[in-house]
Specification:
By secondary structure, the chain is an alpha+beta fold. Helices cover 18% and strands 48% of the residues. It has two domains: 36-63; 68-213, Immunoglobulin-like. InterPro entries: NDR1-like.
Length: 214
């Protein structure tokens, strides 16, 4: 018996049910839009960072400090003295080199200023004036050859002067006060610098020793 060809009416592909498709694996896609809340947080963060940077820069560039002034070197000439107990005296010429250092981000300008020499921290024995000038930002200006004539004729009380002269040393202090303006980013700030340098005049050696500036 010849076997007849049969055509199958069943579908060649099997499709799952609709409920099975919903429970199948899901494909996740990255969201292209950020929620409004995140944008606000990012904006505030950027604002805080910019504000902090501006604050730090202002503290660095707008901070104004006092220029530093000190005696770089000092020499003597024409020294005369007498240690006689009845009429002790001394006369000398001091030649100073003064340095002024400006560590600010702006120039420092000052007018004429006085420099005095004090004997034993009590009485002025010499005085002179240095001319005003300009010290650029982060620069040091050296004023050379500042001459001060000192002498005991200025002393009102020289009771212990003879003893000091016989010891061979005189304790002196040089004092200066310089007031000026520092210009930073268009603003001018008043600043005053004070110099106080102690020194010992070696009478026999005719030189200055133990120079110390505060």
């Amino acid at each position: 018996m010849v076997e007849e060809d049969r055509t199958s009416l069943a579908p060649t592909e099997i499709y799952g049910r609709s409920d099975e498709e919903q429970n199948g694996p899901r494909i996740w896609r990255r969201k292209t839009e950020q929620p409004p809340g995140n944008c606000i947080v990012y904006s505030l963060t950027i604002f805080v960072i910019v504000f902090a940077v501006c604050l730090i820069l202002s503290l660095i560039f707008l901070r104004v400090s006092k220029p530093e002034i000190e005696i770089a070197s000092v020499s003597t000439r024409d020294l005369l003295f007498g240690s006689n107990s009845t009429s002790p005296y001394f006369n000398a010429t001091l030649v100073l080199d003064i340095s002024i250092r400006n560590s600010n981000f702006g120039a420092f300008e000052f007018g004429d200023s006085s420099v005095t020499v004090v004997y034993e921290g009590r009485e002025v024995v010499g005085e002179t004036t240095i001319g005003g000038r300009r010290v650029d930002a982060h620069k040091t200006v050296r004023i050379t050859g500042v001459v001060i004539e000192i002498g005991s004729f200025r002393l009102l009380h020289s009771r212990d002067l003879g003893t000091e002269l016989r010891s061979g040393f005189l304790e002196l202090t040089s004092v200066a006060e310089i007031g000026g303006r520092v210009k930073v980013m268009g603003r001018r700030r008043l600043k005053k610098s004070v110099m106080s340098c102690t020194m010992r005049l070696n009478l026999n050696g005719r030189f200055i020793q133990n120079l110390l500036c505060e």
